[in-house]
Design goal:
The structure is a single chain. The protein has helices at 2-19, 52-66, 72-86, 96-108, 113-127. With 128 residues, it is mainly α.
Length: 128
């Protein structure tokens, strides 16, 4: 029974689509506002030379311009927490090992699981 209904509904929809005649042109005007922050980042070949603090500033500025997050300040603080702990200066120095050590630090600081997950998610978002 439900299948009969679906098939008859689909047939009727198709009939209506064929009969439909629009008298005016339909146009979608979608404006795209590119963020210019990314252009300041170095090319792929220079990634090893990129300093984490410089990259963090560009990342946070980009997130501000996108206006996706409620609090880029909190995101920035959590990423800085990872950078300070790891004592890394360049993107190329970041390893899986440094992230696992950071996770162990978070677990030792007795935060809630949800907060630790948020700290790791911020670092992941930054390095993604």
């Amino acid at each position: 029974m439900p299948q009969d209904f679906k098939s008859s509904l689909n047939e009727r929809i198709n009939e209506l689509r064929e009969e439909f005649d629009c008298e005016y042109q339909i146009a979608l005007n979608i404006t795209v506002q590119p963020t210019n922050v990314i252009q300041y980042l170095p090319q792929q070949s220079n990634v090893k030379k990129v300093l984490l603090n410089m990259l963090l500033d560009s990342f946070v500025e980009s997130k501000n311009e996108e206006q996706i997050l409620d609090s880029t300040k909190l995101l920035s603080q959590r990423i800085e927490h990872f950078i300070k702990f790891s004592k890394l200066k360049k993107v190329s120095e970041t390893t899986t090992s440094s992230v696992l050590k950071y996770r162990d630090l978070l677990l030792s600081q007795k935060r809630t699981h949800k907060t630790n997950k948020s700290y790791l998610a911020a670092a992941y978002q930054f390095f993604k």
